[in-house]
Amino acid sequence: MRTALTLAATGVPVLPLRRGKVPFGNCRSCAGNACGGRPNMKTPGSCRCPGVCHAWAAATTDPHVLTSPAWTAAWRRAVSVAYHPGGAGVTVVDLDDMAAVAWARETLPATRTVPTTRGEHWIYQGAMTSHNAVCPGVDIKSSMAYARYLGPGTGSVADLPDTVRALAVKEPATARQAPAGVMPAGAAGGECPHRTPTYLARGIAMAEQRITEASSAVHATVYRTFLAVLSRHGRCGCLTDAHVTRLFAAAQAKGETARHCADAWANARTTLGL
């Protein structure tokens, strides 16, 4: 409770988690949504039940609620503190393992990081919709979600980049028209963020690995990988046809057609305004 009150005083909506890193269940008054409304459609604190109901929607900064008898009983049973990232105006990129951490280091802008049991939380300033499994081992937690509080972390909090927003974008159902061959990545002349050619080479290799290791949802993985590559490397003209061909080859080795690769690439470019 002390940790929760400290966070709440800084404007971070908090809630207790019980064993298994899960929130407390609905009380009898709210069972079956008797309180009126689906739990996952509520805003934080909108339920008037005195208990700790509705998972992320129970998160609050009100010290009177946090120290009420019902919540005090929950804190005694709690094993950790969680918070509602979107309510605090931040987005958490939850990296489930070190492979995902390695991908993030190659793909995402540096920001504040918090170690977790097996990976890391990368915290960005700015809220967005939450999405699970945007790529292997990566979840996005912001609005309508909760994340465990594991300490303040290290590093400065960066603004939420388009690279992260793009991961949550689904490929359009109808592919836009695209040339049959490999499409150019982007016009040259933009500001180049790459420190060395090796940096770009590692990024392409990581992208190939993501596609190759996809065990399910290959179609979506290919599209999201293309989005991630273009978000990071598509505006400065560093990508060449050789790089794109490598990505297409990795996708086709997983069963994707050349036409789908071209369409997915075109859709990703259009989504990012390239």
Q: Can you offer a commentary on this structure?
A:
A hairpin with a 2-residue loop joins strand 7 and strand 8. Helices cover 35% and strands 15% of the residues. It contains nine helices and ten strands. It is of the alpha+beta class and 274 residues long. It has helices at 2-9, 63-66, 69-77, 98-107, 162-167, 197-212, 218-233, 241-253, 258-271; strands spanning 14-18, 22-23, 80-83, 90-95, 112-115, 120-125, 131-135, 138-141, 147-148, 158-159. Strands 4, 5, 6, 7, 8 and 10 form a six-stranded mixed β-sheet that branches.
List the topology elements.
Blueprint: H1 2-9, E1 14-18, E2 22-23, H2 63-66, H3 69-77, E3 80-83, E4 90-95, H4 98-107, E5 112-115, E6 120-125, E7 131-135, E8 138-141, E9 147-148, E10 158-159, H5 162-167, H6 197-212, H7 218-233, H8 241-253, H9 258-271
Parallel strand pairs: 6-10
Antiparallel strand pairs: 1-2, 1-3, 3-9, 4-6, 4-8, 5-6, 7-8
Helix pairs in contact: 6-7, 6-8, 7-9
How much of the polypeptide forms β-strand, as a percent range? 5-15%
Major β-sheet profile: 6 strands, mixed
- What class would the helix/strand composition place it in? alpha+beta
Cα gyration radius (Å): 21 Å
Q: Can you give the mean pLDDT? A: 82
Structure at a glance:
The chain contains 9 helices and 10 strands.
Features:
274 residues; alpha+beta; six-stranded mixed sheet; four-stranded antiparallel sheet; 35% helix
